[in-house]
Amino acid sequence: MLCIVGASLAASSYRILFSDSSILVVDKDPGLLTVPGIGKPDCLVSRIGGGVSAPHRLDRDTSGLVVLAKSREAHRVLSMAFQNREVDKEYLGVSHPMPPVGRGVIDVPVGKAPPAEFPRIRAGIGRPALTEWQRDGDLLRLRPITGRPQQIRVHLASRGWPLVGDELHGGVPHHRLCLHAFSLKFKHPMSHQQLSFEADCDFFHR
């Protein structure tokens, strides 16, 4: 297994941890889309350029690890790995209030509300969604088993533990959303070598 902790090359709004002929692994800053949105061309993929594509994505306000593909075949294999839940993802977060010391599972559907309702993504409707959580001191370790949009944010808010900075779901104001994709483990799409990456985060440093 290849295990990489930290960053090797810095750029504006992202840091490159690993790069070869097939994939690129980066640590994305908050406030940057992974892929273009409607009327929003600026994103991680466009800033990196070179024809990279995203087999998965992080929300704009979530920071952390993203793996990008440099070829159609790498994109196809990685997309299937994410769909088949063969990629191990772990996030760090801070909520207010925090849950009690311990661990648990949030098993609540997450989906889109009708167009006139707000917020658009909410708990209790839509597709099944599962998130494992563990309190580790002042941090939450969060593992989304499914991959619904805003799943972790919606799940924690549904328990009365909204993330700090997540005002959309009732969180206290902060200069950033306190949610970070900390760990990513997957098989290389071409060599099938097991890869492991970690990237720490300080939620309270400007």
Automatic annotation (TrEMBL):
A Pfam family that the UniProt record links to this protein: PseudoU_synth_2
Domain Pseudouridine synthase RsuA/RluA-like: 52-158
Keywords for this protein: Isomerase, tRNA processing
Record InterPro entries: PsdUridine_synth_cat_dom_sf, PsdUridine_synth_RsuA/RluA, RluA_PseudoU_synthase
SUPFAM superfamilies, per the entry: Pseudouridine synthase
UniProt keyword annotation of Isomerase present: yes
Domain of life: Eukaryota
Single GO molecular function: RNA binding
Gene Ontology biological-process annotations: enzyme-directed rRNA pseudouridine synthesis; tRNA processing
CDD domains: PseudoU_synth_RluA_like
PANTHER family: DUAL-SPECIFICITY RNA PSEUDOURIDINE SYNTHASE RLUA, MITOCHONDRIAL RNA PSEUDOURIDINE SYNTHASE
Name of the protein described by the UniProt record: Pseudouridine synthase RsuA/RluA-like domain-containing protein
Species annotation: Chrysophaeum taylorii
